[in-house]
Amino acid sequence: MAIPRPLRALAIVSAFLLFYLLFQAFRTPPTIHGPGDLEHELPNEPTLQEYGEPPPPLWRADGYAADNPDSPRINATLLALVRNEELDGMLVSMRDLERTWNSKFNYPWTFFNDVPFSEDFKRLTQMETKAKCNYELIPKEHWAVPSWINSDLFDESAKMLEEQEVQYGPMVSYHQMCRWNSGMFYKHPALQDVRYYWRVEPKVHFFCDIDYDIFRWMNDHNKTYGFTINLYDAPQTIPTLWPETEKFMAAHPEYLHENNAREWVVDSKRRPEHNIKAHGYSTCHFWSNFEIADMGFWRSKPYEDYFEHLDRAGGFFYERWGDAPVHSIALGLFEDKSKIHWFRDIGYQHIPYFNCPKSPKCRGCVTGRFTDGERFLFKEDCRPNWFKYVGMD
C-alpha cells in the first residue's frame, strides 16, 4: 500500500531534522576567538611538549630511608590543613604522593586541625607512609576571628556574598581558613625550625613519578615558590584587595622588587572585565592547593607587614580574600620573579583542573589536559599571562 504524499514529506522533513540535530550535537565546537580563549591562545600547549626533569643538580633517592638519621633530607615537610571527616580524601592524596614521590624520600607529614585529630585519623594516615607523621592543633589565637572584626558587618557582608552566589561566602570557617593559610600557618611552633613545605589537600591526585628531592632542588636553585596551576580568581570575592595593596605600596615603595612580576599582577588585556571589577588587579593567582615554598618569604618583613595591613583592613571576613591571591600578589611584587618556578613535570589534579605533562613517567591523566569540566573553564587559565610576562621557569 502506497504511503500518502503528505506523510512521505513529513517523514523526509523529520529525518532531515533528526540528522541536523545529531550533527549539531556531535560536530566540533566552533572556533571562538577573543580574550580568555585559551585553546587558541596556546597553539603550542607546553604540556604537549615532551619534558623530563628540571636542570641539575638533582638529588636522587640514595640514603633517604625513613630511619636514617644521616639522610640528605633538609628541614622540610608535607603540610595539610585537614578535618577528621576528610580522612578518606586525605588518604587518597597521600597514596598518590607517596607512590609517585615521597616513598623514595620519606619527608615527614605535618597535619593541622583546629580540633584534636581522632585516633582513627592518626592510625590510618600513619599506615600510608614510612615517614613520620605529626598531628598539630592550631592555637585558638591563630584561628579565632580577630577582635577588630565587627560581627554585624560580617553578617551583612556574608548575605551580600551569598546573594552574589560566592562559594563559601557565608561560612565563617572558610574565612578563618583563608586567613590562617595567608598569614598564620608558618607561625605555628611545630614549623619553627622548618623552612620548606609542600601543601597537600584532600582529594587531589598526582600522576607522575618524581625521582629527585624537590626540596633540595628548591634550595640548590634558590627558588622561593613552586606552582602547577595558574588561574583567574572571581573578582567579586576581592574587590578591595588591590586598592588596599596600593595603599600599602604607597607607604612602602621600598618593598617592590626590581625584578618583579607586577605586569602579570595588573594585566588588563586578556580579561579586562576582571581587572575592572577587581579595581586594577588581573585576578591571576597561583592555585595554592598546590604550593611548594620557602617559608622564609612569608616570614620576611615585607610579607609580614603586608599581611598585617590586609588583616587590619578586614577583607578576609568582610569580603572573601583567599590565600591564593594574597600569596600571589605578594610574590608578584616583593619577590624576584626568577625565583618562582612552574613545576611542569609534576602531574597534578584538583577538580576540575589539571597539570598533565608529556612524559613517560606520567600515568592516569590526559597529556595536555587543562580541565575535564565545561568548555568555559578554559578561559580561567592564566598561564598565558605568566608565560608572556615571566617565562616558563
Automatic annotation (TrEMBL):
InterPro entries: Glyco_trans_15, Nucleotide-diphossugar_trans. One of its GO terms (molecular function) is alpha-1,2-mannosyltransferase activity. It holds the Pfam family Glyco_transf_15. One of its GO terms (biological process) is protein O-linked glycosylation. SUPFAM superfamilies: Nucleotide-diphospho-sugar transferases. The active site is at 291 (nucleophile). Residues 34-53 are annotated as: Disordered. Residues 1-25 form the signal peptide. GO terms for cellular component: Golgi apparatus; membrane. Keywords: Glycosyltransferase, Signal, Transferase. Belongs to the glycosyltransferase 15 family. This is Alpha-1,2-mannosyltransferase. It comes from Letharia columbiana.
